[in-house]
Design goal:
Layout (H helix, E strand, L loop, with lengths): L3 H26 L2 H27 L14 H29 L7 H28 L3 H30 L4 H28 L6 H14 L5 E10 L2 E10 L5 H18 L4 E8 L8 E2 L2
Parallel strand pairs: 2-3
Antiparallel strand pairs: 1-2, 1-4
Helix pairs in contact: 1-2, 1-4, 2-3, 2-5, 2-6, 3-5, 3-6, 4-5, 5-6, 7-8
Length: about 300
């Protein structure tokens, strides 16, 4: 099984290779759109480096100063990646503005586009690996990196289509126009990455469909209890935290209540592997009108 650290290191190496290929493509053509594509790859390398550092730090076990672990380090990495994406978009817009004022025809377009296409194929394949493995490992940094690469592929395809049109029509202003479109696509991608990461940093609850599954698991597994209420959840990097109050009969012994809690925890562990579950046991007079009724 590939670890998150090895995947992050792979992203860094792939990013460096793709950057070199795209810089060669730009050098051959002088295209501002291909330059914008290369500038985004510089961001990819920086983001991959940040993800590598964050993943290694997040894998550290909990300690006295960080009793809940270091999982949120990955979320900071994803926010940083979103900020770098915005910076890259601004750099691209600056280059495009200059090219609009001084348009020029593209040299060796098809050789440059073929080389750029090779970089896009490499990015597309690695993006699929990162998203699939990042979700398996529940790593926000890897998933964010994969989604960014996927957006980069979309941008690159748009650049290739636009430059082919510029060469075939003899309209050099199509080149900077494609650079502007790339920048706008990157900004949208950056916002998506930052929005998801901010949710984790602000301890946003799990998605409603996941919450419904948690409620159903508690209702099925908590036989012997009356009710569960005050369910709270949050995601911190690869760690999921679930806590709630469980109402048991007042005459129940500590051992009986503990057995119910163990059964619920085991069921939730199947649904959310590696989750941290906290259950507060209460007597029946603490039941609330609204809550999760045990079947």
């Amino acid at each position: 099984m590939i670890s998150a650290t090895k995947l992050a290191l792979g992203s860094l190496l792939v990013g460096i290779a793709v950057l070199g290929i795209k810089l060669l493509s730009w050098h051959l053509t002088g295209s501002v759109a291909l330059l914008s594509d290369a500038l985004e790859s510089i961001v990819n390398v920086a983001a991959a480096l940040a993800a590598l550092v964050a993943v290694r730090y997040a894998s550290r076990p909990a300690d006295a100063n960080h009793p809940y672990g270091h999982h949120k380090a990955e979320l900071f990495s994803a926010v940083l990646e979103g900020a770098l994406i915005v910076i890259a978009a601004l750099m691209i817009l600056r280059e495009a503005w200059g090219a609009f004022h001084d348009p020029r025809m593209i040299a060796a377009p098809f050789a440059g586009l073929a080389i750029n296409g090779l970089a896009s194929v490499l990015n597309a394949l690695w993006a699929m690996v990162l998203i699939r493995q990042g979700r398996r490992l529940r790593s926000p940094a890897l998933v964010a990196d994969g989604k960014h690469l996927r957006a980069d592929v979309v941008s690159s395809v748009g650049v290739i289509v636009g430059l082919v049109a510029a060469v075939l029509t003899g309209l050099p202003w199509l080149d900077p126009l494609m650079a502007v479109l790339v920048a706008l696509n990157i900004l949208w991608s950056g916002w998506g990455v930052m929005r998801q990461s901010f949710g984790g940093l602000m301890d946003e609850a799990l998605p409603e469909d996941t919450l419904e599954e948690i409620r159903e698991v508690i209702a099925e597994a908590a036989t012997g209890a009356y009710q569960a209420h005050d369910l709270r959840t949050r995601q911190a990097g690869s760690a999921t935290f679930v806590e709630f109050h469980l109402v048991v009969p007042g005459e129940a012994t500590v051992n009986t209540a503990h057995e119910v809690c163990d059964r619920v925890e085991a069921a939730l562990e199947v649904l959310l592997p590696g989750s941290v579950i906290t259950i507060h046991v209460e007597p029946e007079e603490k039941a609330k009108r609204t809550g999760i009724m045990v079947h």
